[in-house]
Specification:
Blueprint lengths: L11 H14 L4 H7 L22 E3 L5 E5 L8 H13 L6 E5 L16 H28 L6 E4 L2 E4 L4 E3 H4 L33 H6 L14 E6 L7 E4 L2 H5 L4 E7 L2 E6 L2 H14 L1 E3 L10 H7 L3 E8 L8 E9 L11 E7 L2 E6 L4 H12 L6 E5 L11 H14 L5 E4 L2 H7 L6 E9 L5 E10 L51 E7 L15 H18 L4 H7 L4 H14 L11 E9 L6 E10 L6 E11 L6 H20 L29 E6 L15 H16 L10 H8 L2
Parallel strand pairs: 2-3, 7-17, 15-16, 19-20, 23-24
Antiparallel strand pairs: 1-2, 4-5, 5-6, 7-10, 8-11, 9-10, 12-20, 13-18, 14-15, 14-17, 18-19, 21-22, 22-23
């Protein structure tokens, strides 16, 4: 169970409670099992109700009146638990403080796939909102019999159904059996948004108190009684082969319980954590590997990618992209490989006993992980129980799933004892799946009125998802076993979601446009999903080029964008930011100070976001000082406005770090950015002076999600501000101090 964080305790009793006791009470009952089964519905149901259509898959009311909400989505620090509680509380007419939420547990919650792509509110939020409304209506229906009063004379309030004559009956007294085990309906008796008392109001996030107080919050904090610590020894580089290792010498070390070897997979378990680390170091020293030279040159990686065989797909083709114009511009933009930069190295706790594997993990997809673990371990999926526990570092496919696989293999070798396996910092930095390097070529033509009359955009990228799911080949450990699992063939994520081509099609109105996605199956480095997938690069490229076109047209960047936009909601976020920032046409700025603007609608179908940045570039050092940043976001119906602000604030800081500092480095044999000095990130002294986020609420509109809407616009706004400050356009990320000094001749 992803229980309240207070339940994460060193005691074995509480450890088992988080993974077993409550499961027996609900999930293993026939009703619970039925609730998980996605039975066919007559019509498409809202959100994830379509996957798990029984009401009790989402809402449970206990005999004591306690209300539990279930979601297949994971809390990653985005505040999703809080927003989902608000959805349920609003439609059930109960205090949100009385709700317990269970998230991402393969024996308790619906299978909602991955927590990714800003889909949590769209999928799970929509499901819970509708399920709660239908449960409320059902409770009122049940109360008609109990109170002998027509439904139109009843209303729900504070966990009870009340009659106009003053009589009432509590929810807990109406639900005494399987009353909630009913198929959901396509239409729900949702409240009018004008009556909302919980949705749309800021609510303190349920995950914050433990985080700020240092409580045992994360999977890294789990310490069940009898637990062993484990560490894995990674090969020196991709494709290395283990020739020999002196296992006996290592097993004689103090505290060592067992060395586990399976082909090229090598790990050690010990009584204490430091004992495991010491044993790992000795094990690494006595291991003999055959290595190969196989990585391309880092300095020419983008040219290398463009030379690789690619699968070309035209994703947009309107009018005549070769239409003539008075002024044609061309540019190439690149981004490097990016690390997730998780503050806490990946970790998992595993227990193997009685042919059943239980894994506590911060994976973003517990059901897909379950399938891959089952395949790797030779188990049936029902023999694997994956329970999400928050991890210190997320937003994408980092090493969480790999740590779970490592822990599972070691736990199988030592059955009956909980096994905690955590990666080392250098392992996290060098072996996690990175966000892919990308390159885009773009050209456009302007007419005599400064309007874009032709647009041509091409993007080259590897896949943006090698997440686990089904066959085990995407788990790192599985690839290094004596009988290795082969990774499945990489594939592009189809539009409209998109992978490398996400947000490659500009939202602007351009009569003649051609956009091509060059998908590169061959992956020089291990890559997978990083927050926003390809959208960050594509938005930075498109929005940087929009600024270049505006300059060529001698137009203000904001006015230039508005002149090419028809979508009223897009225009609203742009106008809001311009007003709040105090954007003025031809505003004079001293040397070294710049301002930048950018906009995008995430995936062209989710949240709208605009960002304006003011910064200073120190000429002598090339350092960028972020000043004032203003943003506006339209996520549809805002459930928790403060949570939305949190996500955009985080997106701005993370994107600024990507844009100014971050790049994975490597030589011909291995990854060389193995710590925080070789992979620098934005630190507190480099943080913006101020960040203001304005939420444009759309009561009654669909949830659009927020978590990934801000990265692209923030990165592009920073890039545009740097260009404005130094008078030179830099098109290769990151915009490091060294590159800035070189550009300005210092």
């Amino acid at each position: 169970m992803n229980a309240p964080v207070a339940a994460l305790s060193p005691s074995r009793r509480l450890f088992l409670a988080t993974g077993g006791a409550l499961v027996v009470g609900f999930a293993l009952t026939p009703r619970g099992l039925l609730a998980q089964a996605a039975q066919p519905a007559k019509a498409k149901l809202p959100g994830s109700l379509d996957k798990a259509p029984y009401l009790d898959a989402w809402i449970a009311i206990g005999g004591d009146g306690a209300v539990t909400v279930f979601t297949g989505k994971a809390e990653l620090g985005q505040g999703i638990k809080t927003a989902l509680i608000q959805c349920a509380a609003e439609e059930l007419d109960i205090d949100p403080q009385t709700i317990t939420i269970v998230a991402a547990d393969t024996e308790r919650t619906a299978n909602e796939g991955y927590t990714a792509g800003s889909h949590s509110m769209q999928d799970s939020g929509t499901a819970i909102l509708n399920a709660a409304a239908q449960v409320r209506a059902l409770l009122v229906e049940l109360a008609t019999t109990r109170l002998n009063v027509p439904a139109d004379q009843l209303h729900a309030r504070s966990g009870a159904v009340l009659a106009d004559d003053g009589r009432s009956v509590a929810y807990k007294d109406l639900v005494t059996g399987q009353e909630l085990h009913r198929l959901a309906q396509p239409q729900s008796p949702l409240k009018e948004p004008k009556s909302y008392a919980v949705i749309g109001q800021p609510m303190r996030r349920v995950d914050i108190p433990g985080k700020v107080s240092g409580a045992p919050m994360y999977v890294q904090d789990l310490r069940p009684e009898g637990m062993l610590h484990a560490r894995v020894v990674r090969p020196p580089n991709y494709g290395a082969e283990l020739l020999a290792v002196d296992i006996a010498a290592v097993e004689k070390l103090p505290g060592v319980v067992q060395v586990v070897r399976d082909g090229n997979f090598l790990a050690v378990a010990a009584q204490g954590e430091f004992q495991a680390i010491e044993a790992m170091n000795v094990l690494a020293a006595v291991a003999q590997w055959r290595t190969v030279l196989q990585l391309p040159e880092e300095k020419t990686i983008h040219q290398f990618l463009k030379r690789l065989p690619a699968q070309d797909t035209v994703i947009a083709n309107t009018g005549n992209p070769a239409a003539p114009g008075l002024h044609t511009l061309r540019a190439t933009y690149t981004r490097p490989y990016l690390s997730h930069g998780s503050i806490g190295p990946s970790c998992a706790v595993a227990l193997y006993q009685a042919n059943k594997l239980t894994v506590w993990t911060h994976s973003q997809g517990v059901y897909p992980l379950r399938g891959s673990l089952a395949d790797m371990m030779g188990l049936r999926p029902e023999q694997v129980h994956c329970i999400h526990v928050e991890g210190s570092g997320c937003y994408g496919h980092n090493a969480a799933d790999d740590a779970a696989a490592d822990a599972a293999l070691v736990a199988r070798a030592i059955p009956g004892r909980p096994l905690r396996l955590q990666w080392m910092r250098e392992q996290e930095h060098t072996w996690e799946p990175f966000g892919p390097a990308m390159v885009s070529d773009v050209s456009a033509a302007l007419d005599g009125n400064g309007k874009i009359v032709a647009w041509n955009y091409e993007v080259w990228s590897n896949t943006h998802s090698t997440r686990p799911g089904g066959p085990a080949g995407n788990l790192l450990a599985a690839q290094y076993l004596a009988k290795p699992f082969q990774p499945p063939a990489p594939r592009e994520i189809p539009m409209p979601e998109g992978g490398g081509d996400r947000n490659a099609i500009p939202l602007y109105t351009i009569a003649n446009a051609h956009v091509t996605d060059h998908f590169i199956p061959q992956m020089p480095l291990r890559v997978s999903a990083l927050r926003t997938l390809g959208a960050y690069h594509n938005v930075v490229a498109v929005e940087s080029f929009m600024d270049e076109l505006a300059a060529a047209a001698k137009a203000d960047p904001v006015e230039f964008r508005l002149a090419h936009l028809q979508d009223p909601r897009a225009r609203d976020v742009i106008t809001k930011v311009a007003q709040e920032f105090g954007w003025k046409k031809d505003d004079a700025r001293p040397r070294g100070r710049g301002r930048g603007f950018a906009f995008a609608r995430y995936k062209n179908l989710a949240a709208y976001c605009a960002v304006a940045v003011e910064l200073t570039v120190e000429r002598e050092s090339g350092e960028v000082r972020l000043g004032r940043i203003v943003s506006a976001v339209d996520s549809g119906q805002a459930v928790n406005p403060d949570g939305i602000r949190n996500q955009i604030e985080g997106a701005i800081v993370q994107s600024a770090s990507w844009t100014l500092y971050e790049t994975v480095t490597f030589d011909r044999s291995e990854i060389t950015s193995h710590d925080w000095s070789t992979y620098p990130i934005l630190r507190f002294p480099q943080a913006p002076e101020s960040v203001a986020v304005h939420v444009i609420d759309r009561p009654g509109e669909k949830f659009l999600g927020t978590g990934e809407a801000g990265q692209g616009p923030a990165g592009a706004a920073v890039a545009n501000a740097v260009a404005d400050a130094i008078g030179v356009r830099l098109r290769d990320l990151p915009l490091t101090a060294e590159r800035i000094k070189q550009a300005i001749g210092v």
